[in-house]
Design a protein that fits this description.
The structure is a homodimer of 309-residue chains.
Chain A (H helix, E strand, L loop, with lengths): L3 E8 L9 H17 L4 E3 L34 H10 L2 E9 L5 E8 L5 E6 L19 H4 L9 E4 L2 E7 L6 H8 L5 E6 L13 H19 L2 E6 L2 E3 L2 E3 L4 E3 L5 E4 L6 E8 L4 H5 L4 H4 L6 H5 L8
Parallel strand pairs in A: 1-2, 2-3, 7-8, 8-9
Antiparallel strand pairs in A: 1-14, 3-4, 4-5, 6-7, 9-12, 10-11, 12-13
Chain lengths: 309, 309
């Protein structure tokens, strides 16, 4: 058996502060055209796909960052993208900064089906970084300042012939992320990221180790839950701050099925057989036969470390 | 700062059905001598270190396998190993099949401190394989027939200047294993394994992919909990059934610090700086700042998959 979902990982190169939403959407449309030419069923753009990675910039008054947020979705700036996806009958996912009518701020991604309807929303749960200006870092990473932790859990949606979930950037380092989706039978995880090429707290941890940790986290999540993982970067130099690439598609064995070189706009298209998830789910990771939840209690009972006496 | 614990991963080559406990203990003593010559503080032997990997052999009457089990620990056959460890002031861990006074069967490992006292016991929780003879497999893997799932959780012990935990073989593929120990601040996980070189349910999955999944699981567990992982194989051809090697020591970044080639008896000694766990535990994996247990509920609330409607 095979159930092929052809997915396009649509990497974006850097977005400078000066770029408008309309300029970015025009770039995204070019990538959608390329994905269509390669028969993609689904196109996946990165985290914060409409703007620069603004959490690197400190504002004493948080409201000064509100212009990076979308108060509605779709909105006029992104409507051409929705229109083209519907015209192409192509599913779509992208990330953006969400400002709710109640004034809440989230780092959000959406899942749009082939009819152009938004059928899923995910709000980033594992926000990295810090709240206040940190003079000891080589650069700021203020996600905990500008966003609230997501409040929608890790849902999985039955759509496009499979079971699809989403997570964002730092979520990928947390095995709980994949496991909660794995417990819903997820067959493909869509994951956008904006990852600085250097650790702001350890200058010696450069691109090579950052890419190693990235691949390791994707591969472990894929293997241990027998799911595809589609990881899409925003990459390159944004106003003097470098984001790593590493756009790739990982198969349910944890092997890299396809990888995109470089840090510019580009699509990586791969036909993903969702039935390739069956073997793992039915044998070594057949959860109902093998998991022993009576011994997992601390995972949900405690947040931080409690050392033995 | 540095807190060095010099650990010896003591790989065992194959143990044939015909070998006695005394013969095996003599091999283990030779490895302990080698570890001492390299100033090891702690020596770690594999899973089921005293016998062949007997769960590959089917007995209709389970009691026919009882002769592979230890009814007490230490016992006369292993006493020389305990005596030498105490003489050397070396900590020790090894795995064996445990038969309790109440008649329970477990796949067990113990932790012995430098005074020769058994200070910790772990009973394997994630038993792979099956209960009944399976004619569709290329070889049997009857751990679920001969053992009960462990009933002691995943404890961590404060000993030898650090926080040390244990798990066994298939436990390493389950992120819950490391996380429960990580939530106790674990700094070194001791892990013995006996892993067939071929997947009994997919003949095409051979040594290369098996080693890839092994390394992937160790590295992810180490990185995502900022802990050392000491993985020790029983390897080679046991009565016509091949076990893979892959003895290695993984650092808290998920990088392989040292690896042992081959499938024979041998020690791999590495000075592990337990303070190298601090950076990860205090930054990206500072659990108390970053974990969001309100979204992890399914991990402990449900055993198997519940797909969305």
């Amino acid at each position: 058996m095979s159930r092929i979902l052809t997915v396009a990982a649509a990497q974006l190169g850097p977005i400078q502060k000066s770029e408008t939403r309309e300029q970015v959407v025009a770039r995204m449309i070019k990538l959608m055209d390329q994905a269509k030419a390669q028969q993609a069923d689904l196109i996946v753009y990165p985290e914060l796909a409409l703007t620069t990675f603004f959490p690197r910039w400190y504002h004493e008054d948080r409201a000064e960052a509100d212009h990076w947020f979308e108060a509605s979705m779709p909105n006029p700036a992104v409507q051409p993208l929705f229109d083209l996806a519907r015209h192409y009958k192509m599913g779509m996912s992208f990330g953006y900064a969400e400002l709710t009518p109640e004034g809440q701020h989230f780092n959000t991604s959406i899942l749009v089906d082939k009819s152009g309807a938004i059928i899923g929303k995910y709000r980033k749960i594992h926000l990295p970084g810090h709240v206040e200006f940190d003079p000891e870092r080589t650069h700021q990473h203020l996600e905990k300042r500008y966003f609230e932790p997501g409040d929608l859990g890790f849902p999985v949606w039955r759509t496009m012939g499979g079971l699809i979930g989403m997570c964002i950037c730092n979520d990928r380092r947390w095995p709980e992320t994949y496991r909660v989706m794995g417990l819903q039978g997820v067959e493909m995880v869509l994951l956008g990221f904006n990852t600085p090429s250097v650790n702001s707290q350890r200058a010696g941890e450069g691109l090579e180790q950052r890419l190693f940790h990235h691949k390791l986290s994707l591969a472990a999540g894929a293997y241990q839950n027998a799911t595809w993982v589609v990881a899409v970067a925003k990459a390159g130099d944004e106003d003097g701050h470098h984001l790593m690439g590493g756009t790739m598609i990982v198969d349910p064995n944890g092997e890299i099925a396809a990888v995109l070189d470089g840090e510019a706009d580009g699509v990586l298209v791969h036909p993903c057989d969702l039935d390739a998830t069956r073997f793992g789910k039915e044998t070594i990771f057949d959860f109902k036969r093998h998991r022993r939840i009576e011994h997992y209690g601390p995972i949900t009972a405690q947040v931080g470390v409690i050392e033995p006496s």
